[in-house]
Design brief:
By secondary structure, this protein is α/β, with parallel strands linked by helices. It has a single domain, classed as Aldolase class I (TIM Barrel, Alpha-Beta Barrel). The chain is built from 11 helices and 12 strands. The strands form 2 sheets. Strands 1, 2, 3, 4, 5, 8, 9, 10, 11 and 12 form a 10-stranded mixed β-sheet that branches. Strands 6-7 form a two-stranded antiparallel sheet. Helix 2 packs parallel to helix 3 and helix 3 packs parallel to helix 4.
């Protein structure tokens, strides 16, 4: 006789017994076109220099970037996002504003080698400043901090320079108040009215960024970034306010960063803004921890990586920035 739940008539394992049925009823899909591959391009670099804390990831010379893009072109990825390591840094991050800067050159190479690939440029200053912070500095209430408003004009100039160089999308990551509006006005004034902005709208001051700072040579030379990146313990409503403000300023896509430790934020943003394209950044620490454990035989890298990416999609991500993008595209083929 069936019990109050319907057992044995009701058996949910029937939907799991055959792999064909599991595939049929699966609601979360992952495809190469959902994935964006971060690339690090180094001025004056020699070939491919592996990043010690991110096995399988490299700082690329412009020549190696050309070869990399030719390889990536056939994988069906959703795009690439470029980070630059300049030959020289200064207090204002002037290489970021130069039409001959490393990211500007990298964009030109990317569009030449793979013209059909979406090329996204990260817009910030931490990789370009000698102090490693995300904008101009000033003294405020007895401490040295980023001058939010003075940095906005420079972010607009940087974005326009990237668009001129071939960027299909601009991705500001500095968490400056008003940055999206400033960039939107600058792009529109320069004639780039069709260039979308993907804002790092909810970016947390996370311990998971450590390996990235090796990759991009962007560690702050003093202090930290907690005065502008979000507090991990803050109320989730603060993330929703950040997203709402960026959308009001003209953001076309928004991002939550990091991904795995913030799936609750990702889900909250998706529920609050259901029609907005939403990206998640599967950050360096998340990647490197899996790599380290897999190298010791403790976990299966492929299975763990794909499960993590599916979790981000299930939580609401339309697109995922991930260092597994190239490998995942092949695994999913």
């Amino acid at each position: 006789m069936p019990d109050s739940s319907g057992f044995p008539t009701t058996r949910l394992r029937r939907l799991r017994y055959l792999p064909q049925v599991r595939q049929l009823v699966r609601s979360t899909r992952l495809a190469p076109s959902d994935l964006i591959y971060p690339l690090f391009v180094k001025a004056g670099g020699r070939g491919r220099e592996e990043i010690a804390s991110m096995p399988g990831q490299f700082q690329l010379s412009l020549e190696e970037l050309d070869r990399e893009m030719t390889e990536l072109a056939g994988l069906g990825l959703g795009g690439v996002i470029l980070f630059g390591l300049p030959a020289a840094k200064d207090a204002t991050g002037s290489d970021a504003l130069s039409d001959q800067g490393i990211v500007q050159q990298a964009l030109a190479v990317t569009k030449r080698a793979a013209p059909g690939m979406l090329a996204i440029s990260d817009v910030c200053f931490c990789e370009y400043t000698s102090h490693g912070h995300c904008g101009l500095l000033h003294e405020h209430h007895g401490q040295t901090d980023v001058d939010n408003d003075a940095t906005l004009e420079l972010l607009g100039r940087q974005a326009v320079s990237h668009a001129r160089a071939g960027a299909d999308m601009i991705a500001p990551s500095g968490m400056m108040d008003g940055m999206v509006g400033s960039i939107r006005r600058a792009l529109d004034a320069a004639g780039f009215t069709q260039t979308p902005i993907m804002s790092y709208a909810a970016k947390y001051a996370s311990a998971f960024y450590g390996p990235f700072r090796d990759a991009a040579d962007s560690a702050p030379q003093f202090g930290d970034r907690r005065s502008y990146q979000m507090d991990p313990a803050s109320d989730p409503g603060q993330a929703l306010r950040e997203v709402e403000l960026d959308l009001a300023e003209g953001a076309d896509l928004i991002m939550v960063k990091p991904a795995l430790a913030y799936l609750d934020i990702l889900r909250s943003v998706r529920d609050r803004f259901p029609g907005v394209p939403l990206a998640a950044y599967n950050v360096s620490g998340e990647y490197s921890m899996v790599k380290a454990a897999a190298a010791r035989g403790w976990i299966d890298e492929r299975a763990t990586a794909l499960e993590s990416l599916v979790a981000m999609r299930r939580a609401g991500a339309s697109a995922i920035l991930t260092y597994w993008a190239k490998d995942a595209a092949r695994w999913l083929a």
